[in-house]
Amino acid sequence: MGIKPGQTGGNYRWVVCALIFFATTINYIDRQIISLLKPTLETEFNWTETDYSHIVSAFVASYAIGYIIFGNIIDRIGSKMGYTISITFWSIAAMAHALVKSTFGFGAMRSLLGLGEGGNFPAAVKSVAEWFPKKERALATGIFNSGTSIGAVAAPILVYWMSDTYGWRQTFVITGAIGLVWLVLWLIFYDIPSRQKRLSKAEFDYIHSDTNTEEEAKNVKIPIIELLAIKQTWAFIVGKFFTDPVWWFFLAWLPSYFASAFALDLKTPGSQVAVVYGATTVGSILGGYISSKLIKTGWAPLKARKVTMLVAALAVVPIIFARLATDVWAAVAIISLAAAAHQAWSANLFTLVSDTVPTKSVSSVVGVGGMMGAVSSTIFPLIVGFTLDHYKLIGNITTGYNLIFIFCGLAYIIAWFIINTLTSKLKLGAV
Fold first, then answer.
1. Do the Cβ atoms of 166 and 37 come closer than 8 Å?
2. Is 225 among the domain residues?
3. Mind listing the pLDDT tens digit for each residue in 95-113?
4. Three-state SS for 150?
5. Which residues span the domain enclosing 85?
6. Which of 80, 98, 271, 321 might form a disulfide with 266, Cβ 3.0–4.6 angstroms?
7. At 269, is the secondary structure helix, strand, or coil?
8. Using N-to-C axis directions, what is the helix angle for 272-296 and 231-262, rounded to 10°?
């Protein structure tokens, strides 16, 4: 007996979404700690902006490698075991930061952390593709992707309190251990739909209600070399390559930007940087909701994703004018809009993969595209660090930030036009 319109047969898929959301939140708390403790650590270890940029780049370079490695592994061994290996690895690496006694040691630990964290998004996107029909995937992706924002909001509150109470070394230990707690819940409550005993037959049918049976029958893992020959892989690569550096910049340098441009003390729960990250939560969920709503009203999935991404790209452009803001809250508003738009963009970009690539190859494509995004994000911090150090020497570091904001404002528009060109004649699900 089939599922009637409006019926879902249950809500266990949202339990899965919640698990992925919390994993992504933990992922971002672990990576965000170093930017929040930067003032303390740069004093203790005598870091320059260039030293810090090298540490950030070490993380992102390993994150790129982790993306491609885990993308392939997860398509081979499945989302359950792939996520298990990934979060175990990164949680242990996060805790190991407490043992570091040198700048080189921080670079080494950040590399190990990045390697493990590279598995989060390939596993998460694959899990959504397995557990949600196409009309709900962008919303589910937007919800779990908002974990990046929640993690960034929660991190200042947790990290500053723990650092003041227990010291920076114990802060790394405590936050890293949270991932191991999540792992227990993942092993208890997660499995693919066909093996999940808690899932009703009615909800199983709903999850597969818009699956093309002929395409599903052909659903086999495609070798990476063949994936590189199809346009949808390159559409994802372009999207990640141009826009990931912007998000990394927000994560690594926003606290320093507000401190430098407006002489703020950010060690309070209500700080401006927390407001920016809070706005990204709304952007992530709203971006997923909009494209999912458009599909439910009859739009083709590919068109719904691309139109939503265009709106997001246009919303980033005003960040170019952040340099004109003389009031801190005006700057917060402009940057919040751009950061929220990035998350709306990201939710739909990830879903573009699960819409157009066979399920058994989703993690591989996310891995390849994520790796390329991480490569560009490895280079960008070096440019940022050099630019900021250069303008600091002449006494005007905010000019360096202004140049960076121009790139941020244009990156999404450029990426969207290339993606639109690559997918203009693409039939949904074609390979």
1. no
2. yes
3. 999 998 888 888 899 999 9
4. helix
5. 12-423
6. 271
7. coil
8. 150
Question: CA-CA distance, 398 to 401, in Å (whole number)?
Answer: 5
pLDDT higher than 80, residue 381: no
Give 47's pLDDT tier (boundaries 50, 70, 90).
Answer: confident
Per-residue b/e over 366-387, b at no fewer than 16 CB within 10 Å? Answer: bbbbbbbbbbbbbebbeebbeb
Query: CA dist 344 to 239, 315, 340, 408, Å?
Result: 13, 10, 6, 15
Per the structure, the count of domains in the chain is 1
Q: Alpha-carbon distance 50 to 392, whole Å?
A: 12
431 lies in some domain: no
Q: What's the pLDDT at 7?
A: 60
Kindly report the backbone phi and psi dihedral angles of residue 191, in degrees, each rounded to the nearest multiple of 5, phi listed first: -165, 165
Position 340 confidence tier, pLDDT thresholds 50, 70, 90: very high
Q: How far apart are CA 115 and CA 204, in angstroms?
A: 34
Residue 6 lies in a domain: no
C-alpha span between 397 and 388 (Å, rounded)? 6
CB atoms within 10 A of CB 360: 17
Least confident stretch, 118-132, 147-161, 192-206, 388-402: 388-402
Answer yes or no: is 429 within a domain: no
Handedness of CA 43, 173, 107, 159 (dihedral sign): negative
CATH number of the structural domain spanning residue 60: 1.20.1250.20
Calculate helix-pair angle for 49-77, 120-131, nearest 10 degrees. 40
Distances (CA, A) of 391 to 255, 323, 399, 403: 18, 15, 7, 11
Question: Rounded to whole angstroms, how far apart are CA atoms 412 and 309?
Answer: 9
What does the angle CA 273 – CA 279 – CA 280 come to, to the nearest 5 degrees? 95
